[in-house]
Amino acid sequence: MADFWNPYAALSPGQRKALGIGAVAALLLLWAGLAASGWVSSNRLPAPWDVAAALSYLTWHEGESLLATATLWSLGRLVVAGVLVVAIGIPIGIAMGAAPRINAALSPLLDPFRSAPVVALLPILVMWLGIGEAMKIAFLFIGAVVYLIPMVRDAIRAVPQSYWIGARDLGATPWECVRKAVLPMAMPRIADALIVAVSVMWTYITVAEYVNAKVGLGQLIQNARRFSAWDQVFAGIIVIIALALATYQLMLFAKRKLYPWETHQ
Amino acid sequence: MSASAAPLVQHAEAERRNSISIVLKDIVQEYPAPGGGATRVVGGIDLALERPGINMLLGPSGCGKSTILHMMGGVRPIGVKTPTSGSVLIDGEPCDGAHDDSVMVFQRYANRPDLSVFENVAFPFRLKLWRQRLPEGEWRDRVTQILAAVGLADKKDLRPAQLSGGQNQRVALARALVLRPRILLMDEPFGALDAQTREEMQHLLVKLYNDRPCLVVFVTHDVTEALMLGDRVIVLSAQPARIADDFVIGEPRPRSGTWQRSSEAVKLEERILNQLHKVSPGKGSLRVTV
């Protein structure tokens, strides 16, 4: 235990896995214990087995899968918003990082939104865009892009100046310096920004589907809540967490494959 | 190209390399100081470098010698007017921005971790300027040649992270020389290397210089390095930089350890240190490799 309070101690992969699984198992046991003992009413805390049953019911019941349909719709909204975030947010972030004048002009417009309650924009979006898909996608887009842009800007600015000077000296035009010397070096951190943006969208999906969703994971949770089907609410939340985690791991894997040369100082 | 034209072209190229000059006229450089006002980094420099040769700019650390080198290269790292006053002439033409007569080599070699050694050396040919000038077959040949010359032919597919510090600096040197510049500007290129590797790199530089002489301006704070490499040594005082001494060394290169310990070399070393103590006592630091 001499290594317990040592931030630099290296854990073996087996040790790390064991501790992680142990913690999840402990939480499940505690949950099961609470539910079985009857101290907490099932109206407040559904038992794990009830949640499992709800999950199975949602996955397949009478020839249809409510869960698959809901997941596909939510995923679809997320992908559309994600494409917009990449197509609009990344170029803006790069421009802000590469040109101090653009940054000086845009950052007072964008930075406050990082600490502003994006959720409060929902009624305004409903007013402007109605209650259809456009509103939901716009909400996911805004929620994620206000995180993404500053991170992309910082990724560009974190590239050591020597790459810029070196390219400039070799006769690159200023734009060539950005495009061919600075940007390639910023790509791993831009990928990190995108991973964060997607995680943020997963956390906002329930809010986006709050208003007039006919189908979706958020709607599924809303609907279950309305009928006090707490086991289904829990099941829905668990599915969202699992999907968010899976996307995160997938994107991290892709990033490491794409940029194996990234160094961490 | 016909067989008889080749020597003519080579001759013309050699001619062009020989008629090269950098002239600094009363150069002053000031940078905005953090608390307002201005810090004078370079305090009035007149200097003429008018033929191929290795010119050492020797001065204490932080004396403004890199600033002078950046001016010669026409690179403005922080967007401040460079120089504040005075003029830099390349071949008699005022130089007020990036130009393609010179290439710089830095202490931080700025090799791209995502590119192979070959791609790093070929990086200039990703830029429009150089791509227009040389057909692909030709620049590929040049890259292969220079990689062999710096001793990295067998490492061409490796990434910089797989190389030592000295090998990385060879990559940087190759990237500069692949363009066959008329002016080579070196900013303490071997300053971060260990003593043995530094000496190897000095020998390599001498060999490459002899293959294709050009006008080299080499910034260093290492007195021994200046004496071992320089045709001419220009000693700068601590900030603001002024020329404290300027002399020629006739000893042919490569210079031996015996010459380094000769009375001529020892006297030059004392002369440099005395000059600096007279002009700017106790400011900055110089290194003498023993």
TrEMBL record, chain A:
It is found in: Cell membrane. It is a multi-pass membrane protein. InterPro entries: MetI-like (IPR000515), MetI-like_sf (IPR035906). It comes from the Bacteria. The keyword Cell membrane applies. Its main location: membrane. SUPFAM superfamilies: MetI-like (SSF161098). The chain crosses the membrane at residues 78-100, 112-131, 137-156, 193-213, 233-254. GO terms for cellular component: plasma membrane. The keyword Flavoprotein does not apply. It holds the Pfam family BPD_transp_1. PROSITE patterns: ABC_TM1. Residues 71-251 form the ABC transmembrane type-1 domain. Keywords: Cell membrane, Membrane, Transmembrane, Transmembrane helix, Transport. GO terms for biological process: transmembrane transport. Belongs to the binding-protein-dependent transport system permease family. This is ABC transporter permease. It comes from Candidatus Methylophosphatis roskildensis. The lineage of its organism: Bacteria, Pseudomonadati, Pseudomonadota, Betaproteobacteria, Nitrosomonadales.
